[in-house]
Amino acid sequence: MKIAQISPLYESVPPKLYGGTERVVSYLTEELVRQGHDVTLFASGDSRTHARLVSPTESALRLRDVQDPLAHHIAHLQEVIERSDEFDVMHFHTDYLHFPMARLLKKPSLTTLHGRLDLPDLVYVYKKFKHHPLVSISNAQRKGLPLPVNWIGTVYHGLPRDLYEAGKGDGDYLAFIGRISPEKRPDRAIQIAKEAGIKIKIAAKIDKADASYYEKEIKPLLEQPHVEFIGEIGEDRKGEFLGRAKALLFPIDWPEPFGMVMIEAMACGTPVIAFGHGSVPEVIDEGKTGFVVHSIKESLQAVENLDQLDRDQVRSLFEQRFSVEVMTRNYLRLYESLCPPLKKYSPRAQASKKRTTPISLV
């Protein structure tokens, strides 16, 4: 199958540091290539991929002094338009920016929505383009958009199975990783650790938009003896950080669309204690990969019950539900549903022309 993956330009694919959408695009793209598909990735020029790379910009926009990112994305989408006849299906990850062109191209396409949908202004655009095929990253994500739009499926994010190894949880600390922001509630994580009498390590980035919140609300809390602030970390350090933690604290206070860090922890065999907002009840297998809580008191009870969880089972359930192979298989089903003549397409037959060992989808 000839597939176009269209990523936003804010981060490279994969991102050098933080960037959930671009990481998912990278994992999906590389797995599709591994399975023998002909994939073109539209992304920033500093992206790394085994697919064919097309880009109007030499590097990710977040790493440059860019005053108008929309201008770069318009040029980006024009590249997609000019090459659209090359593909069986086009998979967009650029929110709603491409909706007008996707309708005019009359080519099979779908869009994965990676962000929150509970913003009032979004109603106007999704009402206008209600027939465009949409994919949610959790069923909970859909609740933010109370419109009869064209949902064609929910596909959970997936990680390569060899990205992280199962850790022993021997670090005697609780972990918090992500962004320092009000909706992520690092203050709540610090309180839980304090009342549980356990050290907490915080590996998090601070966006400019959250700088004031950090200075006023979080920075003073970091002075406490049980808190160690590490700052933003990359993939090279994340595995050990999560693998040695007793548990990941995910005390969110917003409708999280997915929560990649939860499955990262599971890949390390580390259970998750998370407040039950948004996707959390879908991602966590209660009493198996972690605990879904609704208060500080319940969080403390969960910490006390961590020894009841089997870290090997946490890792096993990650592989069953959130591996890149599972994610890719689910997307391929959606591609084929949009391209009926391609239902009998066999990547095994195509791959055999190039490889001595064919690769199957299953």
Computed Rg: 21 Å
Q: Which strand order do you get reading across the main beta sheet? A: 3-2-1-4-5-6-7
Shape: globular
Order of helices and strands: EHEEHEHEHEEEHEHEHEHEHEHHHH
Q: Characterize the biggest β-sheet.
A: 7 strands, parallel
Number of helices: 13
Question: What's the domain count?
Answer: 2
CATH class of the largest domain: Alpha Beta
Structural write-up:
The protein has helices at 20-34, 69-83, 99-105, 122-128, 186-196, 211-218, 235-243, 260-267, 280-283, 296-304, 311-322, 324-338, 347-352, and strands at 2-6, 38-42, 52-54, 89-92, 109-112, 134-136, 151-154, 173-179, 199-205, 227-229, 247-250, 272-275, 290-293. With 362 residues, it is α/β, with parallel strands linked by helices. It has 2 domains: 2-158 and 323-352, 3-Layer(aba) Sandwich (Rossmann fold), CATH 3.40.50.2000; 173-319, Rossmann fold (3-Layer(aba) Sandwich), CATH 3.40.50. α9 links the parallel β12 and β13 (290-293). α1 (20-34) packs across α12 and α11 (311-322) runs parallel beside α12 (324-338). The chain is globular. This is Glycosyltransferase involved in cell wall bisynthesis. Residues 18-132 form the Glycosyltransferase subfamily 4-like N-terminal domain. Pfam families: Glyco_transf_4 (PF13439), Glycos_transf_1 (PF00534).
